[in-house]
Each structure stands twice: as C-alpha cells, then as structure tokens.
What we know:
Blueprint: H1 4-15, H2 40-46, E1 53-57, E2 70-72, H3 74-85, H4 94-105, E3 112-116, H5 122-129, E4 134-139, E5 143-145, E6 150-154, H6 155-160, E7 165-171, H7 190-201, E8 202-211, E9 218-222, E10 224-226, H8 231-235, E11 240-245, H9 250-255, E12 268-272, H10 280-285
Parallel strand pairs: 1-9, 2-5, 3-4, 3-7, 4-6, 7-8
Antiparallel strand pairs: 8-12, 9-10, 11-12
Helix pairs in contact: 3-5
Amino acid sequence: MRSKLSILTICCRVTFSFVVVDDAAQMNKKPWSCPEEMPDELRAQYTQDGQIDVTLWYKCQTGPQYDKEHKYEKAQIEEYMGRIKNRLVNFYGNTDTMLYNALDQYPIKDKEVVIMGSQRPIYESVCLVFGGSSCTTIDFQPIIVNYPKFFTMTIAQYDENPKQFDAAISISSFEHDGLGRYGDPLRPDGDVQMMSKMKCIVKDGGILYLSVPIAKDKIVWNMHRVYGRVRLPKLIEHWTLLEVYADYQMTARWTGCDANKEGDYQPILVLKNEEPKPGHNVEVLNKYLDKDPSRYEGVSCFGGNA
Length: 306
C-alpha cells in the first residue's frame, strides 16, 4: 500500500505534469558539454517571442572538478552561524540582510525547512540560527555533513523518496535552470518548471523565500536569467506573493534599468504556496514601479547609458 505522502506527491506531479525531473547522473559529468550559443530553434521559447533580450557570458561548470561531493565541517557551519547571529552578510551581500528581515516577519521556528542548492552552508546556517526544527539541503551533488538538525540529499534521492516541507529557501538558484551551464538539459522554461516542482516540495500554504536577479528582462547565456516585468510574473504565477524585501534600488530595477550582464541584485520574495488572485502578484510588485517608466529605458542600473 502506498503511503499518504506518496499519493499526495503523485497527485502533485500529475497536476503539474510539465514538471521535469533532471537526470542527476548527467549533471556536471562531461567536460565542456555546455552549448556556447543559444540554439536558434529554441530562441523564441527562451525569449518569449522576442520580449527578452539575450547577451553572452559563457561558463561551463562540468567535468571532474565539479562532479564531486562536498563536505561541510562543523567549524565552517558555526563560523557562519556566528556571523548570522550578528546580522552580518555573507556571499550574497545585502540579499542576506533582506532574508533576515523576511524571517523576522515570517518565521521558520520549529518548522521543517528545505534549502534548494548549496555550494557553502550559508543558508543551512541561517535555518539553524532562525530556529528551524530541521534544515535539509537538496543538491545535484552529494553533500557530507554531521551536524544536529542538518540533513542532505541529492535530487535523485529526493525523487526516490519525496517528502514535503513547511518552508523552502532558494537563493540565486532557479535563474540557472535549463541554460546548460551545469550540464543540465536545455529547457527554455526550466526555471518555471522548477518553481512548479517546488509546489510539490513545499506543503500547501507553506512559504518559499526566493531570490533571483531583478532588472530589465534578459538572458545572459549561459550564466543566468535576469527577471523583470515580462519574466518574473510568469515565474511566480502559481504562488501568492506576500511581500518583497528590497532596498532603495528596487524601483529602478523593477521599472527596467539594464543590469548589463550582472545578476547582482536579488531581493527576497516571500511566496505562499497557494494560487494567487488574478493580478495580485503584479499589483504587489508594481508598488516599486516608477510613475514614468520611460526614465529607465536604455539606462544602466550602475549609472549612465546601458
């Protein structure tokens, strides 16, 4: 007899039938297997029929130097925890401050939390400091760790034995999905499909703390996507946007300044796993829309012309 959780997971995947499960065995394996240019036959899908600009910044993270397990040490975790307790920022700078503020208002204390993707145990440490009852990382590569309340699994292991979590943290992760940088299959909607998979990973009514680059819509091939008024509403269309934790830059970014090739500005979107009311998410985001959007046309987010 199947467990209630297994039945729930199957129903979720049937509902989101376009959810793709990447073959983790292929990730990072073959050296220099990343396409250097966007295939012409996929360009319309990637750019939403020409609505999104494309520029080049190529990087290929495949091969033996990437296809290996990570090991997180106790001293490393506790160093990050000490910094977080003092509200200091780490690799992603001010995104961390925005996340701390979001967690103050939407707490994870005594909740089971999943962290999507990890190269260093920063957000696992955030989870521990803010009182998560368990902090589980899901990543393509194995992560070895021995620390209380800290668990890990690969994507393949999760797909074999799925469970649901009260909350999820995804920092600078989904903008890479489907671009081939890590040896993953080319999927124009890889980011959207991953957000759909998250609806199976997070419990109904649970919270996703999400950061992705915000500015004028752009695909920086094959590094990342940048999300603006075209792509971001599509990315979060099946989630209710509760709040945006941002700073003074958000108005210029959301209105459409050009970040060139950078994915540097990543505010925190607090999303609830429920279908939003029509127009709700854009209404929340448009609190940051300048009254005269033309002021930002062709303008660099870093000053001067793009």
